[in-house]
Amino acid sequence: MDVDEAAWELYGLRPEAFTAARDACAARARSAGEAAVAKQVAVWRRPTLGVWAANLLARSDQQQARRLLELGEGLREAHRTLAGPELRDLSHQRHVVITEMARQAGRLARDAGHPVSDTVQHEVEEILHAVLADPAAGPATDWARGVLRAAPPSPVGFTGLEPAAGATPRPAAAPPPRAEATRRAATTAPSRERERKRERELRTKAQAEAERTEREKDRAESEFTTAERDLEQARAAVAALDERIGALQDDLSRARHERAGLHEAEEAAARRRRQADTALKKAAAAAAEAARTWNALNG
What we know:
Order of helices and strands: HHHHHHHHHH
Largest sheet: none
Structural class: mainly alpha
Number of helices: 10
């Protein structure tokens, strides 16, 4: 067994079955002398429902998963080259595809006997957005294989991308002169003001969303730290109990051995008592007979 095989086996299971299967898998690896595999597997965390549903989605259609990564590469390239029209088209495609794929993940989870809530479906969407934001990263490739172990951090746009050297915006094709003149005549100051207002609203909304996701991330990290500490304490308590159980089992084994010895001694003593009782009865009878004979001789 190698790590990839173990990940494929475990992260396809429903979350409630994960922990026992992980421990059994690690134990098998240790028994087979594969200490390195056992060490890696033993620390894997149980997936959330969102991660499990996202893995179901990737496993159900790996070609679709690869196409999503290709879409992410296209979006990153559009950001690098400042291709405005292409970027708008790809962004629209991203939202449509992710929404539909998240719904598909919900259907797959329901078919697998584990319906998910809107919150979990939103978690799947966040995972897919993160995959799109950095399709070459480890979490993205893990998801495409159906072995994602934890939700990647929520992205805020395509951060870390700079325009390629010498890149300039690729303008849209110029409209025919008559159409351009008509468009300029139709553009009024109120419409431009409405557009600017809409842009301000979108920026404000995007900033609020970024701040909200950052707060959620901080809260999730705090909850994870607490859960990790509780897990370590529980594992330590289990280890202590296992050690105590082992000691008690040793004591019980010794007590059973001693009891068996005492039982044998008891049976031997009972045999000797029966033999002594028989001898006593014979001696008493002989004494009585001797007394009668004496009395007869002296009578």
